Amino acid sequence: QRGDKTALQELYNAVKDTNLDEYVDGAAKDNFVAALEQAKNVLDDDNAVQSVIDKAYNDLYNAYSALEKLPDADKSQLEKLLNECETYEESNYTPETWEVFAPEWEAAKQVFANEKASQEQINEAIDNLIAAMLQLRYKADKSLLETAVAIASAKEEAAYTAESYSVLKAAVAEANAVIEDENADQEEVDAATKSVKAAIEGLVAVGDETTDTETGQTTTTTKNPAKTGDFAPIAGVVVLALAGVATIALKKRK
Known about the structure:
Elements: H1 6-15, H2 27-44, H3 50-66, H4 76-85, H5 95-113, H6 119-134, H7 143-153, H8 162-180, H9 186-201, E1 209-211, E2 218-220, H10 231-253
Antiparallel strand pairs: 1-2
Helix pairs in contact: 1-2, 1-3, 2-3, 4-5, 4-6, 5-6, 7-8, 7-9, 7-10, 8-9
């Protein structure tokens, strides 16, 4: 005689759409999946007797009751990271590193806003965001390099030997390339600054060459070379020199 499946059908309908991602993996979850499948088979069996139906009901009920709910996902660390990111200003970082950071920041915000995000998704967002934060690089301070280039540009080519001035021109060209490079790091900027300073110090004024009468070789000497780091005095000399020219011009007009 066919059994009554009403109770089994109601239980099956109530638990069949259970989101197993919300429960701990293991034997309990496996047993529930098996019991759910068995209940479906019994419900589909037009000849199922009451004892089989009752067993399917009890197995499914017990399996569902044994499921262990996962703890609520913890977003506290992700929240702290996102709060930290809110203090970042794009203008402070190199475009190259910001382009890596920005999409990971946006993805992390979406995970945080997702009420159904799993702990695995949250942890992945945290890892990706931390990696993106760590690779950020501040834009280099180019003020000293720009000063060095300005001083070098004030030098008159005709006043120096071709060889020494060509070294300066090359150093300035490389320095300008670094200045224009928004992704240049501080090490590159410092190296370019050092190169320009060395070229300025190495300038040889025309007429400072001396010829060895015995060998016939021409040597050059640098008069009063500026010490490395002495940009303020050099800049002052340039300003004073320009001021002197202006004073002479005014006197001539009188």
